[in-house]
Specification:
heterodimer, A: about 190 residues, alpha+beta, two-stranded antiparallel ribbon, 7 strands, B: mainly alpha, 10 helices, disordered C terminus
């Protein structure tokens, strides 16, 4: 009887576990090996960069941009915010105000998931794979990044661009390159 | 007994093994989460649920273990599994609610965890007044702040060290995570604030005191249980050093040479603990084991 109880308990527990895991199955599988995936991502990025198919620009904070509190588009490239503005923009970004991508040529992009994806989460939680140079790899820099810590910093992105609406284009960022460390934790 | 402060070679040996084991377990816990995220992120929520089930089963199984040391050993593993499940549930909640990373790099699950401080406070309040609690720190708080209406505490034999150890592990880990998250929050204190420095200093100094106390436990069960707060307090300093950019955590950056040493230490200490406990199969729970 005791053994039966244990077996019953274990089976019920696993039934619950597998019932809930059904949601994961809908997600993309990750069959490609991690090292191969990273290698392919970096090759694609650096080839695209040489061909001029990447975009250089800065991540800007949407709320203060659209209500005119900040004007990063009028500032010299790479100096989108003053120190005070940057602090406020980063705080807003981590509170989930939408982050936009302002490219070097002044085009505004809305970072979005890949075309066809329906129920999606905030792109500000999206871990973007980071293309690292050999020198950066030696330094052991973080291998991915998310937009909030990169507000105001010059980055180069590669991805799919969509026509968008009213001049604002959509971009699904597949990989990103930038100088320095992603994880703040050092004074900057 | 801790009170006598008689350090024997045995207690020194137990202390070293317990510290290495719990440190190794914490590091392996971290790296397994990093590996799941890196190599198979689609599996993470299934993994979280499996950990929850495993944790409950492990804790349940301790009801058939006679030795308090075995109960503590498995209770610790059960607590870790449940903690995994908690973190994954927060990750899942973070995705569902669109919680993003902070500009200073904090992950969504830890942002959410920070706001569980009120439930933590409520559970802690209960423990503070619960007569059967035998935590030294709570005794200290009761004494200093004269919290109890009477001096009576529940005495007698403890029969469920497995769930107690699991709960101890969960509560300590929870408390210290929240302390760190509060310290790192730039709108409250910030990574370079006086609070973080004080936390670093307090953890560093208290660690050695706890090691000294730990040396007084001449049995594996109490020694393992007391090693949980001891290692967690040290872990605070490791986390803070990493936040300050002075330490690259080998379990986050997957430094295999360093991780191999930690995993090796964990395996050896596991072997030594199991060998010692098997040699004491007949040992029964003693009411004097009050850690």
């Amino acid at each position: 009887m005791k053994t039966f109880k244990i077996i019953f308990f274990v089976l019920i527990s696993f039934a619950f576990a597998f019932a809930v895991s059904a949601e994961d199955i809908k997600k993309k599988t990750n069959k490609q090996k991690y090292a191969e995936k990273v290698k392919k991502m970096e090759e694609t990025f650096f080839v695209a960069s040489k061909k001029g198919e990447t975009l250089k620009g800065v991540f800007i904070e949407g709320n203060s941009f659209f209500n005119g509190t900040t004007e990063p588009q009028k500032k010299p490239f790479g100096e989108a915010y003053t120190a005070d503005e940057l602090y406020a923009a980063k705080q807003s970004a981590e509170r989930n105000s939408k982050i936009m991508f302002l490219s070097y040529d002044g085009t505004l992009y809305f970072p979005c998931p890949e075309k066809g994806e329906k129920v999606t989460m905030s792109e500000q939680s999206h871990r973007i794979p980071r293309a690292l140079t050999e020198e950066q790899k030696k330094k052991g820099l973080f291998t991915w990044s998310t937009p909030p810590p990169l507000i105001g910093r010059v980055v180069e992105v590669y991805g799919k661009i969509y026509p968008g609406f009213a001049g604002v284009k959509g971009i699904h960022i597949e990989s990103i390159y930038f100088e320095g460390e992603y994880v703040v934790g050092k004074k900057d | 007994m801790a009170g006598k402060k008689i350090f024997t070679l045995k207690s020194i040996f137990y202390t070293i093994i317990s510290l290495v084991w719990i440190f190794g377990l914490t590091a392996i816990g971290h790296i397994s989460m990093v590996l799941v995220e890196k190599y198979n992120p689609a599996y993470k929520f299934t993994f979280g649920w499996q950990m929850a089930v495993a944790g409950f089963i492990i804790i349940y199984m301790t009801r058939w273990m006679k030795s308090d040391s075995w109960q503590s050993f498995w209770g610790m593993l059960g607590g870790l599994a449940l903690w995994f499940a908690f973190e994954y549930s927060l990750m899942y909640g973070g995705e569902r609610m669109g919680v993003c990373y902070t500009w200073n790099g904090s992950y969504p699950e830890y942002r959410l965890m920070k706001w569980t401080f009120m439930p933590l406070l409520m559970v802690s309040t209960y423990l503070l007044y619960q007569e059967s609690v035998r935590c030294n720190f709570i005794f200290f708080l009761r004494r200093v702040f004269r919290l109890m209406r009477t001096k009576a505490i529940a005495t007698g034999k403890i029969g469920n060290y497995g769930p107690r150890t699991a709960f101890e592990y969960i509560m300590i880990t929870w408390t210290f995570y929240i302390l760190l998250m509060i310290a790192y929050d730039p709108e409250l204190f910030g990574p370079y604030s006086w609070f973080t420095y004080m936390l670093f200093f307090a953890s560093f100094s208290v660690f050695f005191y706890l090691c000294y106390k730990l040396l007084g436990y001449g049995k594996f069960g109490p020694n393992l249980r007391y090693a949980i707060p001891t290692v967690t307090v040290l872990w605070n300093d490791i986390e803070i050093l990493a936040k300050w950019g002075m330490l690259k955590e080998p379990w986050v950056h997957i430094n295999w040479p360093i991780m191999s040493v930690i995993i090796g230490g964990f395996v050896v200490s596991t072997y030594l603990i199991v060998r010692d406990l098997r040699g004491k199969k007949q040992e029964m729970i003693e009411s004097t084991d009050i850690a």
